[in-house]
Amino acid sequence: MPLDRSALVGNERLLAYLGDEIELGRLSHAYILEGPDGCGRHTLALSCAKALSEGNPAAEKIDRGSSPDIFELGLEGDRKTIGVELIRSIREHAYIKPTELDIKVFIVHDAELMTPQAQNALLKLLEEPPAGVYFFLLCRSASLLLPTVISRAPVLRMELFNEGALGDILCARSSDAAGMRESDPDNFMMLIRVANGSVGVALDMLERGIKGKSEGYSVICSLFDAIFAGRERFTMAVMGLPSKRDELPAVIGNIRAAIRDMIALKYTENAELSFFLDMNEASVMSDRFALSTLIMMDEAAGKIAAALEKNINLYCAQLILATELYDAYSK
């Protein structure tokens, strides 16, 4: 069957490319699918598996998550990394013939958390894969993978949406979103901004009843208020931020967006805001900081964002963020 384009919003070029590769029998045995949580990486991998299984009655099990030939792998238990043991398990199953399909597909979640040893162990499979075996490595940033792994699996970057497009897509897929846009536009816009271009994140927030001000917006505003209460209070506020590996980068992104709004207002009263919803609120906050302070704070947050891409310990990242931001403020 051709690649199912209805399962994934946007990503037209990527879908067209993979669809052509499948129809021409040229699909690579491995791909790295890069993008934030909720961007459709997993959906795309499953769509490829279904297209590769065209004509097989057992393909319907792929959607139900019950196909014995589709393997979903990733972090186990409380572990922070993916070790060699998982790769050994993949290797063991890769050389066994499929049970129902004509292919086997291994989907590795959080692939960037594979240890160097695990990535090196995976190399042999990527270099000489068994016939009919496909690998999809799902990661937030391919830069965290070894160059040798990247050289053996094309990196496909998922498309993120601007605020207008994301809002339209969300309303088309959810009556709750359409209702919120009409009755509560401020919270709707904040939800869109916190989702950071990801349809999946936005839908998840809606399903869990999360509205922007209660989660993303007020947390960041409270953080900036806390800096005036002293180092200890501010450090406690930073350490209380969402701290999962897939949450902290987005939080830091929102911190930088707020800082940049405040910087922009130093130059013009009519700046286009990317974080704050209320111009007056943004102006009041901006007036509380010197321009040089805001610039140093943005640079500090940028350094931590870069460190997170290199897999820095999350606790250390939060502690350094608190120290760097407060030092910038107190200079």
Task: Quickly list its features.
56% helix; alpha/beta; 331 residues; 2 domains; 5 strands; single chain; Rossmann fold; globular; 5-stranded parallel β-sheet
How would you describe the overall organization of this protein?
The chain has 331 residues and is of the alpha/beta class. It folds into two domains: 12-157, 3-Layer(aba) Sandwich (Rossmann fold); 211-330. It is built from 16 helices and five strands. Strands 2-3-4-1-5 form a five-stranded parallel β-sheet, with helices on both faces. Strand 3, helix 5 (116-127) and strand 4 form a beta-alpha-beta unit. Helix 7 (163-173) packs across helix 8 (175-183) and helix 15 (291-309) packs antiparallel against helix 16. The protein is globular and about 65 Å long. The N and C termini lie far apart (62 Å).
